[in-house]
């Protein structure tokens, strides 16, 4: 009996791994990748002790497609975190996409380029360039994936949360020189233990240094401190953070929440006393599952109908 149980779990692991590897992957750009310059940079993949990959030095950005079995018309683009130095692709990407599929949402995991002067002409705009192109591309392919083009959300974890909040507050003037007029405004935002502010008091130093350098101007710091960029047009937002996060201060979520309140942007926030940073979907310090709270929020917003 014990051998049968072990065989079952071995097969289950194999099926899960195979499923993760067979998802369609589409390039973000059909031709030359904008804001690039010739370099010897190549993508690097490292494995953590648990086997999960960490990707850095991305040169060719992509979207991995997780189409829901019974699509409800809503899509979410997921931006993994990693301090703008690497991407935690599994627990802040592919695993999350599968959870959205259970809700009937088609998900796209964004492998975006990280700021890198060696291969980019302006590293400060590169992640946003890719995030905006991802929204543009999903909107353009809406009919192909049974998506309502007015129901495309953006989720980000940690520095991916900074990227998502930047896309949610900087859409009026898209970066780059594309002539494509497709809207790059997300219809809703989900920011999980996000980097929000690049101010001296609230910043995650690694994220700020990687994006705008270790000696940014006051103008750059303000531009990418997204609590200062919220307007009445900022999309409805869902926030999650832990009070004891010693990597990205919980005040990042608080200041974005306050800015949304000030501008009358619909916003919901869930704070946990413990959990630290980087817990993905599973905060082991509580029996509460924030993805259930997220599902309730999406349902109340009409995105699951």
- The figure for the number of domains is 1
Number of strands: 11
Mean pLDDT: 93
CATH superfamily: Alpha/Beta hydrolase fold, catalytic domain
In the CATH hierarchy, the architecture is 3-Layer(aba) Sandwich
In the predicted model, the low-confidence regions spanning at least 5 consecutive residues are 1-20
Q: How far do the termini sit from each other? A: 44 Å
CATH class: Alpha Beta
- Order of SSEs, N→C? HEEEEEEHEHEHEHHEHEH
Tell me briefly what this model is.
This protein has 8 helices and 11 strands. With 305 residues, it is of the alpha/beta class.
Protein architecture, described:
There is one protein chain. The chain is built from eight helices and eleven strands. Mean pLDDT is 93; it is low at 1-20. A hairpin with a 5-residue loop joins strand 2 (44-47) and strand 3. By secondary structure, the chain is of the alpha/beta class. It has an eight-stranded mixed β-sheet with strand order 1-4-7-5-8-9-10-11, sandwiched between helices. Strands 2-3-6 form a three-stranded antiparallel β-sheet. The N and C termini lie far apart (44 Å). It has one domain (42-300): Alpha/Beta hydrolase fold, catalytic domain (Rossmann fold, 3-Layer(aba) Sandwich), CATH 3.40.50.1820. The chain has helices at residues 2-21, 90-102, 126-140, 159-167, 205-212, 218-223, 251-262, 290-300; strands at residues 25-27, 44-47, 53-56, 62-66, 75-79, 87-88, 106-111, 152-157, 188-192, 237-242, 267-272. Helix 3 (126-140) packs across helix 4. It is globular. Residues 70-257 form the BD-FAE-like domain. This is Alpha/beta hydrolase. One of its GO terms (molecular function) is hydrolase activity. It comes from Hymenobacter taeanensis. Residues 1-20 form the signal peptide.
């Amino acid at each position: 009996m014990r051998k049968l149980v072990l065989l079952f779990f071995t097969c289950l692991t194999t099926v899960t791994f195979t499923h993760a590897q067979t998802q369609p992957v589409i390039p973000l750009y059909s031709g030359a990748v904008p804001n690039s310059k010739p370099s010897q940079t190549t993508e690097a993949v490292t494995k953590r002790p648990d086997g999960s990959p960490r990707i850095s030095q991305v040169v060719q950005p992509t979207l991995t497609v997780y189409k829901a079995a019974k699509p409800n018309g809503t899509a979410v683009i997921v931006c993994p975190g990693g301090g703008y130095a690497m991407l935690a692709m599994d627990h802040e990407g592919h695993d999350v996409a599968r959870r959205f599929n259970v809700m009937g949402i088609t998900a796209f995991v964004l492998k975006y380029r990280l700021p890198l002067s060696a291969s980019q002409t302006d590293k400060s705009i590169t992640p946003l360039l890719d995030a905006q192109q991802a929204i543009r591309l999903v909107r353009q392919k809406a009919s192909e994936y049974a998506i309502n083009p007015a129901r495309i959300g953006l989720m980000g974890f940690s520095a991916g949360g900074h990227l998502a909040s930047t896309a949610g507050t900087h859409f009026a003037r898209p970066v780059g020189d594309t002539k494509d007029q497709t809207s790059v405004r997300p219809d809703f935002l989900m920011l999980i233990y996000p980097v929000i502010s690049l101010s001296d008091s609230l910043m995650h130093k690694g994220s700020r240094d990687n994006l705008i350098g270790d000696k940014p101007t006051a103008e750059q710091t303000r531009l990418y401190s997204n609590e200062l960029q919220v307007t009445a047009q900022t999309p409805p937002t869902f926030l999650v953070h832990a009070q004891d996060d010693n990597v990205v201060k919980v005040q990042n979520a608080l200041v974005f929440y306050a800015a949304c309140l000030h501008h009358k942007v619909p916003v919901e926030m869930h704070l946990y006393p413990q959990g630290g940073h980087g817990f993905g979907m599973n905060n082991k310090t509580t029996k509460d599952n924030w993805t259930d709270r997220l599902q309730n929020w999406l349902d109340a917003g009409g995105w699951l109908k």
